[in-house]
Amino acid sequence: TLIIVSSIIFFILVLVLFYFLFIRSKALSYQVKELTRRYEYLHSILINEDSKHLDHIEEISQVNLLYTPIYDKQVARLNHLKDDKDIYAGERIKELNEDLNAKRFKQVRKSVIAFKRYLSEFEKEVNEFNNDLLEIIRPEEKCNQALVEAKNSLERLKQHYTLHLDELFLLKKSYTEVFKYVENLFVEYEGYVEKASYEDANNLMPSIHKILGELETANRVMPSLCVLASRTIPFRLTDLENEYKRMDNEQYPLYHIITPKTTSKLRNEIKEVVKKLKNFDYKGQDETLKLINAKIDTYFKAFEKERDDRRVFNEEETPTYQRVSKIEKDF
What is the rounded CA–CA span in Å between residue 236 and residue 114? Predict the structure, then answer.
């Protein structure tokens, strides 16, 4: 029995020793490794990411003096974090790893507890600093993003114009000029961004969006309007003029329906519509073209009525003449 009890006690002691020597050492090793990883990540943010952000803010301050005090303040913060906080944290991490390698577990446990608190505060300061830097350069990023979106919109509008070039040939010069105008606005916008005049850039963008919006609407309505104004209606008007000449030569009475001045007036109305379309003044032009088309329809119908009336007259005239002739012979 004594032997059994002694064996159990020995086994328990071995387990306790194993726990202290192996399991707890592994736990400490994991904690040190995790703290090292967190420190190296924060160190990398300060040295790489935040330093690059500060370099960019320095460039901004060189073209916009309003950013000079902002840059100076952030440089001071970076120096404090790097020269004081970061160096101290790096030294503690080095000591932790040295103690761990030397199996000074008691010292490691004590240092881990203290360093966790310090690293949490350091992490908070680094994240706040990083967020502040991002907030400073965010206006430029927003401006650049807005410009990219606007350029993409213009490119889509150009592609649509190219696809409908045959219908829009009437407005080739107008489209070329407006595309060039928008591109010049892009250059002006980029100039504001390069000078860190983000407010001026933001004030200009609504004008760019307005033009792009009007172009988008124009792309929807212009193809059909241009075809009507430059082809369909002028061709119909030419047909009307030719029919007028033919019927006039056949001595149809047309003065109460139409005269050459009538078609000339209609052509002037079409020219006025074309002039407005070339200035992208498309509002109301659809109705104007419909009215002109309706007038042409009315004239063609009137011509047809004249032909019908003559046919009826001719059909009735022959029997009447024959009856009159017969009466004359009888007498």
Answer: 93
Hey, what are 221's tokens?
């309505």
The pLDDT value given to residue 324: 45
Q: How far is CA 48 from CA 40, 41, 132, in A?
A: 12, 10, 16
Give the global pTM.
0.74
Which tens digit of pLDDT belongs to each residue from 159-216? 999 999 999 999 999 999 999 999 999 999 999 999 999 999 999 999 999 999 999 9
Q: What are φ and ψ of residue 18, in 5° steps?
A: -65, -40
Residues contacting 100, CB < 8 A, separation 6+: 28, 29, 32, 108
Q: Which residues contact 241 (CB under 8 A, 6 or more apart)?
A: 260, 263
Q: Tens digit of pLDDT for each residue in 269-327?
A: 999 999 999 999 999 999 999 999 999 999 999 999 999 889 888 887 655 545 544 55
As given in the structure block, the two tokens for residue 248 are 């006039």
CB 285 within 8 A of CB 276: yes
Tokens, residue 289? 């073209």
Distance, in Å, from the CA atom of 247 to the CA atom of 254, rounded to the nearest integer, reads 8
How many Cα atoms are found within 13 Å in the side-chain-facing hemisphere of 292?
28
Whether 8 shows a pLDDT value over 90: the answer reads no
Residue 214 CB neighbour total at 10 angstroms:
13
